[in-house]
């Protein structure tokens, strides 16, 4: 009955993409926010961004929605909208202050994730982006289990070039394979920095073991792209603005656009394959 309820609620969601990383601080929420903005740039597409990072919900700030609250209607919780075609849901909207700590055990977290999937009235959605916390534990198992009632296109895994990050990301890839979650590909974030004055490139996080490219070759996973460091990304996120529209000519924006296009192509192809099977 529960699976049927979730399936019914998520029936109108065309594509679901999970954003994962075994490591914290690699820019996963930033990537989720910019992926949502990039997809919503096409006004014919309806995009939903679900933040299931229960203890560290940074999506409300990044999307310029701090202080907003969730409203309940007859059809469930209404998402908070950035644009007409971009809705957001996060535990951050349920806290009385952005500084409040969420001190919950696993079952309560899992209950909220289920509630987000079952009770949020997204309406017809082309892309549901799910921003997850770091790791391979409760929240990840719950979201994969609950979404299996509908369908998941796959996961985008975010890393930075250094071995300390790659070590945890390999675990995340292993997790995806164990729970049969398709991997769309890997994004290498903070990949080099081009000085705006002298134009020389520096490796802030040196890829001592070959970076994401080498890891993807070894594990037979697609590398979706490399996003260089740009200080403007952090500034835009702090202001709740889309970096893609604030710095359209930045090499990082061009990289993001290519990655977003590859994700869209993967999702469309996945959808066609599913229709053939059905």
TrEMBL record:
List locations, semicolon-separated. Cytoplasm; Nucleus
Output the SMART domains linked to this UniProt entry.
AAA
Record's PROSITE patterns? MRP
Highest taxon in the source lineage = Eukaryota
Share an example GO biological-process annotation for this protein: iron-sulfur cluster assembly
Query: In what residue span(s) does the AAA+ ATPase domain sit?
Result: 14-185
This chain belongs to the protein called NUBP1 factor
Which species is the source of this protein?
Donacobius atricapilla
């Amino acid at each position: 009955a529960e699976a049927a309820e979730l399936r019914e609620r998520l029936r109108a969601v065309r594509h679901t993409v999970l954003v994962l990383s075994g490591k914290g601080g690699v820019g996963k929420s930033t990537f989720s926010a910019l992926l949502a903005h990039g997809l919503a740039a096409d006004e014919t597409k309806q995009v939903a961004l679900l933040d299931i990072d229960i203890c560290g919900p940074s999506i409300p700030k990044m999307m310029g929605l701090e202080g907003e609250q969730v409203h309940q209607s007859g059809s469930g919780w209404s998402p908070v909208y950035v644009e007409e075609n971009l809705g957001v849901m996060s535990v951050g909207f349920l806290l009385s202050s952005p500084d409040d700590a969420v001190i919950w055990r696993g079952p309560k977290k899992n209950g909220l994730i289920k509630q987000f999937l079952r009770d949020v009235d997204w309406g017809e959605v082309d892309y549901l982006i799910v921003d997850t916390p770091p790791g391979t534990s409760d929240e990840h198992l719950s979201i994969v289990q609950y979404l299996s009632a509908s369908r998941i296109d796959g996961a985008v895994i975010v890393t930075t070039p250094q071995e300390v990050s790659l070590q945890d990301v390999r675990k995340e890839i292993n997790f995806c394979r164990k729970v049969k979650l398709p991997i769309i590909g890997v994004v290498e974030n903070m990949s080099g920095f081009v000085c705006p004055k002298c134009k020389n490139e520096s490796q802030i996080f040196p890829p001592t073991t070959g970076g994401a490219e080498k890891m993807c070759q070894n594990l037979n996973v697609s590398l979706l792209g490399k996003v260089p460091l740009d200080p403007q990304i952090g500034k835009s996120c702090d202001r709740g603005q889309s970096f893609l529209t604030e710095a359209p000519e930045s090499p990082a924006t061009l990289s993001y656009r290519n990655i977003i296009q590859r994700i869209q192509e993967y999702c469309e192809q996945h959808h066609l394959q599913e229709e053939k099977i059905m």
